Amino acid sequence: MTSAVAAPTSLLRPAVSTAHAAARVSVLAPSNRAHLSNLEHLFRNRGAVETSGSAPAPLQPVRRRRQAPLLRLPSFLKRARGDVATQEEQVNLSPRLFLPVPPDGPSPRGDIAAAWRRLHGADGWRGLLDPLHPDLRREIVRYGEFVDAAYGAFLSRPDAAPGDAEAVRVPLQDAAYRVTAPLFATSSVGLPTLLALAAPCAAQRTSLVGYVAVCEDQDEVRRMGRRDIVIALRGTCTVLEWAENFRAGLVPATDAAAASTGDASAAKVECGFWNLYKTAGDGSPSLSEMVVSEVRRLLKKYEGEEVSITVTGHSLGAALAVLIADELAGHGGAPTPVAVFSFGGPRVGNRAFAERVEARGARVLRVVNTHDVVPHLPPRPGGRWYADVGRELRLDSRASPYLRPDADAGCCHDLEAYIHLVDGFLGSHCPFRANAKRSILRLLKNQGANVKQLYISKAVDMRVRLDAVDMPGSPLGRLSPPPSTVLECVH
Fold it and tell me: Which string of DSSP letters, residue by residue, matches 52-74?
């Protein structure tokens, strides 16, 4: 007869029955396994894990740089570690700003047929400038792009002459308009013979300065309420044009209308601007004669229609635009509305000239950047000699969230910077427009050194993802858009 052997007992641990012990093990086993699993995870995170059959490895020191961050920030935000959240709230890093054309297309153009005269300055843009009316903003941006095309035409053919005008290509961005005539300006000064022989391109006296275009799309004519004739003029690009810019003496602004009224001696303009406007080239008419002839031809062609004349220019082109508007408005005949949209233009003439422009009916809107020095030239000590013409739309390049607050003088005068500021302007006491749709690729191309590093890094980051195989040594890589897109002005 067999009998069960009792389990040994101790004073410290009383005996328990076999069934009770088995039940206790079955309850504790899962808890022990979970505890061991947690310890294993802990040791793994600390750097070392024991393996079966081997000596325990010493714990490695924790290296903070190897720990995965709780939030992986994009590379272009790593420069501002202390205020990343603040910058994300204040800046707009939408990818559409870095595309040549917004994915949802440009800003829609509303029907302005009923209000085009006000937008064209019939009442001096009263109530439209501050805050800036959305329709007027689109019109100003559009006319700025016409000037941009004038720069593009010159840069593509800087040696163009009146004799080969057919070869001039104007990269218009508005397909509703057609270029009818290129415009050339001739300097009244020349380089010394030795310098002219050493640098023939710098000695060229007659250069392509702009063009005349007319709206021929009937849908656009109906939308605008009239047929628009545009005269667009670029800024200073040649050596001799620079020489004319510094001829700041005042000369009488004589034309046929002034001679008939006897006020030719009172109205005076800057000598260099007047020479570029009135000097004829070798075998070619002056800029004044070209403009008047072409505008008369177009007015006769579209006789009986509602027609407007819009003159737009940047820098030197802005000064020439005022001279053109003064002459066109001074001619008799049907009162065709004449308006000027100028960007960064210098002062053109004296007080008598400014009053004559207003009296003749030409409306002038001067778009001015507060930090641009050119609109303050030529100087007028004590308010004498020179006077501003027309109304002013004052912008501030420091209001742009994309430009550096210490942007240099070239950036403050740049045409693309002007268009960028207009596109984002709401009012003098308002922040930059958050839903501005104009791409900043143009700013990166023309004024990359004056764009905030945050946006340069974002552009690089986007280009690496989109064109990883095409990143040459430039810090921005190939940021220029495809050849079909015209973005070729650098000024």
Answer: TTSPPPPPPPP-GGGSPPSS---
Computed over its alpha carbons, how large is the radius of gyration of the chain? Answer: 35
- Helices 271-278 and 316-330: crossing angle, nearest 10°? 60
Q: Six-digit token pair at 29? A: 């086993």
Rounded to whole angstroms, the Cα distance separating 276 from 287 reads 7
Torsion of CA 220, 224, 225, 226, to 10 degrees: -80
> What type of residue is 382?
G
Report the alpha-carbon distance of residue 446 to residue 407 in Å, rounded. Answer: 13
**The model scores a pTM over 0.85:** no
**For 281-319, how does the pLDDT look when each residue is reduced to its tens digit (9 = 90+)?**
888 899 999 999 999 999 999 999 999 999 999 999 999
Q: What is the per-residue pLDDT across 252-289, written as a single tens digit (0 to 9) for each?
A: 998 766 655 555 568 999 999 999 999 998 888 999 99
* Listed residue (368, 353, 343, 355) closest to 323, CA to CA: 353
Q: Distance (Å, rounded) from C-alpha 179 to C-alpha 197?
A: 35
Active site residues: 315, 372, 413
